[in-house]
Amino acid sequence: MTTAVAGKDLGFWKSGHWPTLLTSLLYFDFCFAVWVLNGAMAPFISKEFGLDDAQKGFMISVPVIVGALMRFPLGLLSQYIGRKNAAQVEMGMIIVGLAIGWRFVESMKGVIAMGCVLGVAGASFGVALSLGSGSYPPKYKGLAMGIAGAGNSGAVLAVLFAPPLANAYSWQTVYGFAILPIVFAMVMLQLFAREPSDREHKGLKEHLALLWSRDAWIFNLMYALTFGGYIGLTSFLPTLFHDQYSVPKQSVGQYAAGIIIMASILRLFGGWLADHIGGLRMIRVLAVIVVLGTVAAGVLVGIKEGPLANPWAMVAVMVVVFSALGAGNGAVFQLLPLRFRGNTAVAGSLVGEIGGLAGGFLPNAMGLGSKYTSYGYMPGFLAGTALSICILITLSLVMKKWTSTWVGEWGKARHDHDVPGPNENVHAAGDG
Among 173, 131, 172, which Cα is nearest to 151's? Predict the structure, then answer.
């Protein structure tokens, strides 16, 4: 679709297919809730099976890592059978995983096996964003991506509702309850979504060329922070508040929910703001905020007495960090479709895969740091500090080249005639 008729701007909602956008948001929201469900259940599962800190971190990380590894294959599948069909296949697999958790998990090995299947839910990101925003023109890509990407608010559903339900019934029963929203999302997507026309039919070799794209790996680095940091911390928040501050298992969601909501709101606002002031400018500012916030969080976990040894002090710092991560996430996906036109689903899935793997690293860093050092969870937080500094250095090296080739000043979208054509999306200037 175009944004103008007889030179008149149609506005955001009329420039694309909003039913597809909103059902993509629903699909991603419920899949994201499933993806972090093991993290929300971690205090209950840990108590039942007597897990130490390292085992907790590994158990939480399994769905995150598997979801990351599945993103690129699902992105490739969506290029061949369509994003809508790929989403339906994925949700069918998720239902199988939830049924396993509900009826068959009786040991730690069972939890890990279930986590491997449920990790498929994490592959929804690239497909959902590409499906939802595919019919929108470059001018509105950031906002459309932001709306679809706000589905990461599904984490709120998991941390807020799953622990009380587990306390009232059992943690296994929660997995059975989670089947219902996935079925609902499947029905809504089938009835109201339609496949956008922006999908290019390329050979496997052309899609895999992204693996050798320098620019793609720079996007991976940015997304490892903005999304990997988000999903890793989201999965670990229940354990952090339960173990560090002795918050009851059924109440951890009350501390974590507000933090996650802020990230989701800023994810939406970040896409819109990146359209207006430029995604590159935003990422630079937000990376500085993350440096300061992660250092502060690392210091807080080492304080055992006094007013700062309080869960609400950590909540305040995490709200700032998550807000920066959420807005940065929106900025990354404002830039991605401008750089990789016609191949956004595959590019988004590759970027999401690396970002998700970084998220899987974080719970392990937290658990291993707590078990084998005297610094508790500090090493996990400082890993985010180091990554933010790497991003600031990298952007300083490539920004001039990028803004002289495929994107405008500070990362704003150029006019259509200035944007590289779809066949230039891997080997365009600046990707040498």
Answer: 131
